[in-house]
Task: structure prediction
Amino acid sequence: SEIPPLLRGFRGLGLALLLLAVFLAALPMTQTPRRIPWVGDTRARWSLLLMALVVVAGVGTAFAVRPPVIVAAAGVEQMRIATYNLHSGYDEFYNYDLDAIARTIQESGAVESGAYVILLQEVDAGRISSFGVDQSLWLARRLGMDRRFYPTNEGLQGLAVLSNVPIAYDDGRLLASVGEQTGVQRVQVLPNPNAVVTIYNTWLSPLLELSSNVTIADQEQDQQQQLNEIFAVYVRQQCSAALGRTVIGGTIHNVPDSPLVEQMKNAGFSDPFAGLPLELSATFVRAGLPTARFDYLWTCNLPSLGAIVLPDSGSDHRLAVAGIVLNRQAES
Result:
């Protein structure tokens, strides 16, 4: 279901909304008899005391649940970047465990390393099927990271980036989609005063066995059009010194030897996972289905420090992590 824009506008207004509700609840007392009925009665003091207690409790609750202060990493020369498809918080057996996803991120070193950026796909933001949780906000507070969310499906699902590196800018764009609506999210981070890293986070249309006249070849053309839009609108050129430090990642829904992935190689982008056997680079592992790699990180002007895929996950996808060097010579 879709959240009306009016209700979505109340996000982040918990305390103000509570105080307004208390005020509106007290208004009927002054209207019907044209005077407050308990004036001159000792009950007036108790009523005023109760209203004051509600206000104090509201302020105290808001103070107690306030989000933690995010301390961004500064002066970073090396950092790790990851891609993780949340699958709306469900694993392959449809067990919902958002805390397991947070633990997976923690086990990858996101908290201890000090410099980390995570690209998230299939992120819910208030869907009934995921218990109304704004998942990227929940994870950001749980992990003490900053976040940016870009909605693709009626404001209730989309792409997100978590970061404990300062975020300077973010935007996004919807991509042409035959099936489920998808898009691309752009985020720029500032690891140090001399380095800007531009990150493109995307989720391309999946390849599905459909009973209709839509073939796999048709769906691959849909993927190709989406990737072409990313290059036409944002990237605009092949990897070169002029492009700057760039990362393109997310769920591509295609295998490494596909023409789609070959296009990224031909454009000069580096794959930190290239050369790893499938059992070490696979990000989609399900019982009874072939192991596959559907999630990618491509880098430009960012030398690699190695890559790893974590074996355990709270999603039906696995978390892929790559270390990168912020080579200052890339901008000289």
About this structure: The longest strand covers residues 182-192. The longest helix spans residues 43-64.
